[in-house]
Amino acid sequence: LFCFLSEVNFISCQSLPMFVILAFCWVYIRKFQSRQESEVVSTITAICALAIALITSALLPVDIFLVSFMKHPNGTYKEWAANNETRGQIEDTVLYGYYTLYSIILFCVFLWIPFVYFYYEERDDDNVNKCSVRINVMDFTSLLLQNYCFIVFRAFVPLEAPPGQNSTQWEKVQYLFEELGSSHGLPALSFSISTLTLIGMLAVITYTAYGMSVLPLNLIKGTRSVAYERLENTEDIDDVEHQIEKLKTKCKDGRPLSSRDRNNLQELEGKLQVLQRRGRHLEIAERNCCTKVGSALRPFKILLGIFFILVALLFTVALFISNLDKALHSAGISSGFIVFGTNLTNPLNELLLALQPVFPLDYILITVITMYFVVTSMAGIRNMGIWFFWIRLYKIRPKKTRPQALLFLCMILLLIVLHTSYMIYSLAPQYVMYGSQKYLMPSAGPTSGNATFGTTRICDADAPEDQCTVTRSYLFLHKFWFFSTIYYFGNWAFIVAFLIGLVVSCCRGKKSVIEGEVEADDSDLSDDEYVH
């Protein structure tokens, strides 16, 4: 938006945020990536997928800004937007942006990420040669590729047969390409995207809801004292060594240990190795400058955590009021619980409307809200790990995360971004639908010459159709009523999941300063990156 409004070179200005996004994605992936199992293709794939997720999340604020930028504060269209054809071109540009990025997400979810994932899984098998790896990867991805091709062809193949059954093959191909440029396939493409959005809804309920509670509470509670942890770890080491020595005394006279004692001795020796690694990590953390800086910034973290929890509660209240409004004033399940306008006072929607006169506070706030969902989703995945129902597949740990886990993380974020637009629409329905647009309601009194007098009103569902432009995002969200119905019940599930996550996060104690760095299944070689 700054590039659009400023007088600096537009192309040069555009390259700056892209560079910032790629730099952030590279730092984030490298922070969690395992140094022992890092691989170029999976790293590039994860960075690109994460960048696509962040870029796609920025579409909604841009969409709202463009429809709002067409009009003056008094409700009249600006000169360059007075023509319907010009407005249509801008709307089509945004629409094509949605279709392009959403199609890239489809490609990533169905083909690119699964292919890299299966390739890395097969390559880990030492008994399989390279030729067999490629064959097995193609076999594994064939099903997903078939699904992807089905969606693409279902989206773009003409819904009606070409006129004239005796037409030549060239005429049929020409007719197919003509239909590609028409809108016949757009509802089908929207249907395929909405189907993926349902999966994103499940990810939002699981990860985003938990991240909204665990992120601020972790900031408020902080971490345990390094000195206290070292003292506690030293006591545990002494206790385990004493138990090992006690077991070894049983075989001093030459008698062999029983199978039970051997198992206990093996478990105690493994536990001792873990405790010794913890001691080395705690010693490094105590000398680390980041730990000292984090202690100095403790008051700032507490304030930031309080701010985040207040924002999370505001979102929950706004979502509850929006769902209650739909339950009371919509036509029910058959209409997808769609409500035109707001009948109950929604605090977040009112806040965005109140910030409209002070440009560009409302656009900054909607951008912050979008980024907040992305950040809390990443925090939820970071703390929970990757789950398939009740089975934990991978953990997300600093410098210890496997490439497959990072690929899963980026795929989940891509799906979450698809559902983010509906979540924000539920939080502020009127603003997401019309932005900061206003329209001029002509007065019933006499007019003076060619001048028209009237009152300026904020665009809502009662506004004339030619006076207010609906965002492309809103049209995307309400193409199919049954998806809207599922999203409605998903919002209730999100509220319940957030409250449960809030209770769980409150009951948990402080995290260790080396949380996730030491696990029982780690090798001693994994400590080299911390020592050096």
Automatic annotation (TrEMBL):
GO biological process: protein localization to lysosome
Membrane topology designation: Multi-pass membrane protein
GO CC, alphabetical: lysosomal membrane
Pfam families: LMBR1 (PF04791)
Cellular localisation: Lysosome membrane
Keywords: Cobalamin, Cobalt, Coiled coil, Lysosome, Membrane, Transmembrane, Transmembrane helix, Transport
Record-stated family: Belongs to the LIMR family. LMBRD1 subfamily.
Protein name: Lysosomal cobalamin transport escort protein LMBD1
Organism (species): Sander lucioperca
Gene it is expressed from: lmbrd1
